[in-house]
Amino acid sequence: MTVIGSIGAIAAICTTGAFVPQILKIKKQGGEDLSYSMLFVYLIGVLLWLAYGLLFHAPAVIWANIIASLLVSTSLVLKFMHRPQGGGAHQRRLRVAVDMDEVIADTLLRHLEWYNQQTGESLSPELIAEVGLESAIPAKYRELFDNIPHQNGFFDDLGVIKNSQRALRLLDLSFDVFITSAAMEVPSSFDAKFKWLQKHFPFIPPSRIVFCGDKEIVNADYLIDDRSRHFARFRGTGILFTAPHNARERARVRANNWDEVLAILPTPQARNQSTPATELADARA
Q1: What's the predicted TM-score (pTM) here?
Q2: Would you say the C-alpha torsion 68, 74, 75, 80 has a positive or negative sign?
Q3: Residue 101 catalytic?
Q4: Domains in the chain with CATH codes
């Protein structure tokens, strides 16, 4: 065999055999990442090369393209046989990330109780909602107020936000629900927060509890949080959960309670017909 012939033979083996590992991959993982259009065009191409080989009596071209057409046809058949149930493209369940403090855990009530006890003030949620957090706290007490969550026992046995347990149980039927707390702001809270979640939300597995700093790392479709700063670089839809400190803040999507959260989030059955959360919020404004 000449050098030119050897090169041609090796090229034929490589281009023909390229579909063997692809077929093995389809058998193991399915062929969702393969395009039907590409496979059909490729099949037409090898069939035309086969016709070319037959017309010019070129055995190498003939045999290489017979094998290639069989391999491409096999890939098409396997891709069709491994199509997702229901005939549609595979879709993962949407992910909902849920903050803890003032979204499912009533930290504000504890915060105000301790603040008022230590200062003799009578700070209330209503006052915070009316004038804002900065204006409601005298400058001389600001540092004390900020340090209260760092005191021992602050996160022990907090109250549960109304209807949050029921709502998360319902969401858990249709979504992948993750608890995402910026606990790095108070590192000493890890143990208390974890025990609190186990007590009040035992249906959320530990693998779906995320204690973090910057919530930009959270890969979810929705983030329910009382702090809008966490939405700045979040790639999904942020839902601002109403708390006294954010009552005067403008929000694209706001939920005043957990019933409103359930109304905003679409179920998988209605997902194709539902109004996107951002549009719903704009319509309410």
Answers
A1: 0.64
A2: positive
A3: yes
A4: 3-81 (1.20.1280.290), 95-284 (3.40.50.1000)
